[in-house]
From TrEMBL:
InterPro entries xref list: cNMP-bd_dom, cNMP-bd_dom_sf, Env_Response_Regulators, HTH_CRP, RmlC-like_jellyroll, Tscrpt_reg_HTH_Crp-type_CS, WH-like_DNA-bd_sf, WH_DNA-bd_sf
PANTHER family (alphabetical): CRP FAMILY TRANSCRIPTIONAL REGULATORY PROTEIN, HTH-TYPE TRANSCRIPTIONAL REGULATOR ARCR
Coiled-coil ranges per UniProt: none
Gene source species: Robertmurraya beringensis
Domain HTH crp-type: 141-214
Name assigned to this protein: Crp/Fnr family transcriptional regulator
Classification of source organism: Bacteria, Bacillati, Bacillota, Bacilli, Bacillales
Length: 233
């Protein structure tokens, strides 16, 4: 069974969901797990690697919504819908594996296992709260607030404490950050240059190190939300 290989460190709901998984799928950097508008037949649990969830607007501009890693769930918004289709793109940015769960079978499992359904609803509620806080930052705080809050979230999700600050372990281009912030790459480049001049951050080979996280929080009147909600996952 799929669950046997990954049974350690699993929560109840993930363990139960993995029991419903039909197969493990290898994922390759640069390819897509699914694309917006594609017929949805499966939901996925990321077992290893990283997957970026994004949305394209009518002009072809990309807005990155999540950067998902191990044990994150993607494709969940297709459950209990008529003619389900994926509403986001899921691009693989790091090789790994995912567990594929048939949507119809999972819906039946929820009816049979009320505890699983309740736990999944709790997970969805947390996911909605995370998404709400992200859009609040993007809409209310302007371009600078969007960038600063994105860097803070990246620190919470992928930060590694070093002697000189918090190193974000995921390589990021200016365009990557622009996609997360929903703004132009040129604007991101200017703001990053300002932060580097003030020694708030440094960048080496696409790796950002934050030397003064408190500065970023102060600039956007950070509410110090719990880390489980203030992240990029």
């Amino acid at each position: 069974m799929v669950i046997q290989k990954y049974k350690e460190e699993l929560s109840y709901e993930l363990g139960e969901l993995l029991k419903s998984a039909e197969r493990i799928v290898p994922i390759k950097k640069g390819s897509y797990l699914f694309k917006e508008g594609q017929e949805a037949r499966e939901m996925y649990i990321i077992l290893s690697g990283k997957v970026q969830i994004s949305k394209m607007n009518a002009e072809g501009n990309e807005l990155s919504l999540r950067l998902c890693k191990h044990y994150d769930i993607v494709g969940e918004l297709t459950l209990f819908t008529v003619d389900p289709r994926y509403i986001f793109n899921a691009k693989i940015i790091e090789n790994g594996e995912v567990a594929a769960i048939n949507i119809t079978e999972l819906e039946h499992a929820f009816f049979k296992n009320s505890q699983l359904a309740i736990e999944f609803l709790r997970w969805m509620n947390d996911h909605i709260r995370k998404t709400t806080t992200k859009f609040r930052d993007l809409v209310l705080n302007g371009k600078k607030g969007a960038l600063y809050s994105t860097i803070i979230r990246l620190c919470n999700s992928y930060g590694v404490l070093r002697e000189n600050g918090i190193e974000i372990s995921v390589p990021l281009t200016n365009q990557d950050l622009a996609n997360f912030c929903g703004t132009a790459r040129e604007s991101i480049s200017r703001m990053l240059t300002e932060l580097r001049k003030k020694h708030i951050i440094s960048i080496n080979k696409k790796i950002i190190t934050v030397h003064d996280l408190s500065y970023l929080k102060k600039e956007i009147d950070c509410e110090n939300c719990p880390i489980e909600y203030c992240n990029i996952d």
